[in-house]
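Need a sequence for this fold. Nothing fancy.
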């Protein structure tokens, strides 16, 4: 019996993920594992895709930290005000992130343009 906190990740061929990231059959040579200039698009897309989730994670972390600071502030008015300001800014950040994402999804639904996915034409 094995205990795993995180499931194992297995390597996959880039050609099965996004064929534009790698080459293809060139004459009699199999170039399916050769990176092409299209790989830059894939690299940038892979770097940008987790950003909204990371921003939300940071905002939730700031909320937790604000709660800890609020509980440990005691009777100091400056510490309480600082904790509430931290809490307020974290809530504003989460709301702005949600509103911006909602606007992007609405634009995508009305126009059909994929604005939530990175692409180089």
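Here you go.
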């Amino acid at each position: 019996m094995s205990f795993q906190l995180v499931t194992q990740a297995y390597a996959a061929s880039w050609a099965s993920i996004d064929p534009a990231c790698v080459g293809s059959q060139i004459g009699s040579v199999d170039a399916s594992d050769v990176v092409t200039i299209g790989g830059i698009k894939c690299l940038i897309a892979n770097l940008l895709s987790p950003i909204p989730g990371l921003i939300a994670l940071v905002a939730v972390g700031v909320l937790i930290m604000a709660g800890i600071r609020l509980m440990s502030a005691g009777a100091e008015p400056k510490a309480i005000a600082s904790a509430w300001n931290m809490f307020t800014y974290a809530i504003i950040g989460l709301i702005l992130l949600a509103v911006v994402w909602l606007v992007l999804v609405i634009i995508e639904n009305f126009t059909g343009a994929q604005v939530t996915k990175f692409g180089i034409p």
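For context: The first strand starts at residue 25 and ends at 26.
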